[in-house]
């Protein structure tokens, strides 16, 4: 299976986008986090951190999020095989709620497999 690219346009306040990327950089996958920041900015989300030897080989890339810094917008999501839109929304809710204190677009999965708004 191939990765699936979804083009979207989710605008953020410039300050919120800066906070999201700053949080991700501070929680890098190599220092107990699950995020990896690349240029242009692109944010990779991994299954788990690489804090112990062998963790990198066991960890899988889940999503790559591409942002347009000038428009302060999330413009595309690359979903790796085995991960879907619902899992992406859950991961986005986790990132937004920890970095911003609230969710903007993300939705957390409820225990029964449905989704719930994060308050």
Question: Which descriptors would you attach to this protein?
Answer:
single chain; 119 residues; alpha+beta; 5-stranded antiparallel beta sheet; 3 helices; globular
How would you portray this structure in words?
The chain has helices at 14-26, 55-58, 85-100, and strands at 4-11, 35-38, 42-46, 61-68, 73-79, 108-109, 115-116. It has one domain. It is 28% helix and 30% strand. The termini are far apart. A hairpin with a 3-residue loop joins strand 2 and strand 3 (42-46). The chain is built from three helices and seven strands; from the N terminus they run E-H-E-E-H-E-E-H-E-E. By secondary structure, the protein is of the alpha+beta class. It is globular, with a radius of gyration of 14 Å. Helix 1 (14-26) packs across helix 3. The longest helix has 16 residues, at 85-100. The strands form two sheets. The protein has a five-stranded antiparallel beta sheet with strand order 1-5-4-3-2, with helices on one face. A two-stranded antiparallel sheet has the order 6-7.
Summarize the structure.
The protein is α+β, with helices and mostly antiparallel strands.
Output the structural class: alpha+beta
Beta-strand proportion: 25-35%
Number of helices: 3
Q: Helix and strand succession?
A: EHEEHEEHEE
Q: Indicate the mean pLDDT.
A: 90
As a whole number of angstroms, the C-alpha radius of gyration is: 14 Å
State the end-to-end CA separation.
36 Å
What is the 3D form?
globular
